Amino acid sequence: MARLGFKVASIFASFGGPQISFLLPTDADCFMALGLIEVPAKVSKHLARIEPLKEVPVERAFELVVSGARDFNDLWGPLESWIRKVAPSLLAHVCTTELNLDLVIFLMKTWAATLLILKSEETLRKRFPKNVLLPRLLWDYNNNPLRKATLGDQFSKGAKQVSGTMRALQNEVQDMRGQLKSVQDQQASMLGHQSKMINFMNNIDSRMKSTQQAITIQGKEIAIRAQLAEMESRIRSLQVGALLSPDPARRVKLERAIKELAASVEGKRAELLDNTD
Known about the structure:
Distance between the termini: 48 Å
Structural class: alpha+beta
Number of helices: 8
């Protein structure tokens, strides 16, 4: 940035890419006017697009945010009452923002009160519907506003559904075996019918085993993909840090860490291919 003549106040990595704060508003306007900027080839082979921040600025340390105001009429009042009940006399500030009408922003007087609010999931769920999301630090919201379910949550939900189906199949098998025993006791001569019933049950058992094997393979693959995503995210963050660090020794250290992580990523990819095969 100094090479381009801009006076920078701070640069740090975030969810969508590096964020830059300028000392002078005119520098920010001139930088935005560039539209695109060259970056080192090891970061990207293409020009980087310059965009304004699309987040709610953090004005006070440890500001908290609850989303869901659009779907809850007058969320501010009930939320403020809930906060004062959970942490009496410790609410310092509450407001909304024109930048995102779905949010209610508030600040506690102490960090201990902030932790108390963050850990009060059970009482909030009793008071508000599910579309009112749990309190989060505003910084955390800016980095991941969608708060999508993790791969582990998705797999857990699917595993529960499959487990329910398996239990139903097991119950069906037990019922069929009971019916088979009754038929065997009453009609010993109906060997053909019994053979069909046995084949049917064996087929169900085979399907259950196949389903169990598929769940195991799927779970392992999801876990590996989650690890890959985390390591690749870490690599991108280290690359940005190496790019922006003015300290040569720190850049060398970061580049070494990037190489180590890249080797781990290749190992995980190989493991993923073996698991898929």
